[in-house]
Specification:
This protein is an all-alpha fold. It contains 15 helices and two strands. The chain has two domains: 87 residues; 204 residues, no CATH class.
Length: 345
């Protein structure tokens, strides 16, 4: 057994990471097979399984980015590249995702190339359409981000050197999807539904974990800090676990909700984050955003969240730090869209 566990960041990673990967990859395969079944109940279950398997794979990409799976950085990168194909983000590179997320931690900021709010402020007609689709729980806001991901080398000047890769992945993934669409249109449509479910989960968890918006410094060298760097990191970071009393409900998102613990020590693997949160921040529920409250906000402000306007919170001042946590706990923030860590720009 030691001959195997020595390759992992921690010996227990063989069990926990192994189970997560088995579920993510196995669920992806079984989910796809279930989409072709004749029984509509099997189709429904397979769609949910596929969506959640891709979600777990996405959070494992996050683990790979922090090198918490294997001892070798190269092994983590190889696994991250493989999982990128499962999550539909292989048009760019795993290193692009890892670098942007690394900057997020080091800068205590959301270093980006693309500012969705600025983009939408110049396109009121597009905003109307996005609001329309978001009312029906179609994450149109995030689909804009995915469009940029799909055509990353065509849109982002700094990624022009990835053009051949981008075209190759487009041909492979696009070709396979067209084959499925021609052979079994139902399976193609249900795959899209599963993918939208993954988008919902990722943006739900990410949407309230920080009180700042994007800062267009991704490709800048040594940009100035907006908030004092890592010294004030915890003040701008917030946790939204599924459950504080029990660990297992948080496994549904690989404990990503324990965000203060993650930012305090990013090399702690997902399965130890609940215990690390208790060690560093205690068990007081006043320190986290309740899951039920966030669900209500996610539903209630799904349209207003597109532009952070048009609702009952417009007249309130922008909350920061402790006030942000207080308002979030009371269900009085719009939250964010288009903020998934899978976005590499």
């Amino acid at each position: 057994m030691k001959a195997v566990t020595r390759f992992f960041h921690e010996p227990q990673g063989l069990l926990y990471h192994g189970l997560a990967l088995a579920y993510g990859v196995g669920g992806y395969v079984l989910g796809w097979l279930g989409l072709f079944h004749d029984n509509p109940w099997v189709n429904a279950g397979a769609t949910l399984l596929l969506g959640h398997a891709m979600t777990i794979s996405a959070y494992m990409i996050h683990e790979c980015g922090h090198n918490t799976v294997f001892r070798s950085n190269r092994a983590n990168a190889r696994l991250g590249r493989f999982l990128n194909w499962i999550c539909g983000t292989s048009y760019g590179t795993f290193e692009d995702i890892r670098y942007k997320h690394f900057r997020h931690h080091m800068d205590n900021d959301d270093a980006v190339w693309f500012l969705p709010d600025e983009f939408l402020s110049r396109r009121p007609r597009l905003v109307q359409w996005i609001r329309f689709f978001e009312w029906f729980y179609i994450p149109a806001h995030d689909l804009i981000m995915h469009f940029i991901t799909v055509f990353t080398a065509f849109i982002i000047p700094q990624r022009r050197d990835q053009m051949l890769r981008n075209i190759g992945v487009l041909l492979v993934r696009g070709g396979l999807f067209l084959v499925v669409l021609w052979y079994e249109p139902k399976a193609a449509v249900l795959y899209l539904v599963a993918y939208l479910l993954m988008m919902h989960v990722l943006r739900f968890k990410d949407g309230v974990q920080h009180d700042y918006d994007g800062n267009p410094t991704l490709f800048a060298e040594d940009p100035p800090s907006r908030f004092g760097g890592r010294a004030t990191e915890q003040a701008h970071t917030f946790s939204n676990p599924e459950c504080l009393r029990y660990d297992w409900p948080n496994w549904l998102t690989l404990c990503f909700g324990f965000h203060n613990a993650h930012h305090h020590r990013p090399t702690v693997p997902w399965y130890r984050l609940p215990a690390y949160h208790r060690e560093r921040f205690g068990t007081d529920p006043e320190n986290v955003i309740p899951f039920g409250v966030q669900l209500k906000m996610y539903h209630r402000y799904r349209v207003q969240r597109v532009t952070h306007s048009g609702g009952e919170l417009d007249d309130l001042p922008t909350p920061w730090e402790a006030e942000y946590l207080e308002r979030a706990r009371a269900g009085k923030i719009y939250g964010g869209n288009a903020v998934s860590f899978l976005n590499s720009f």
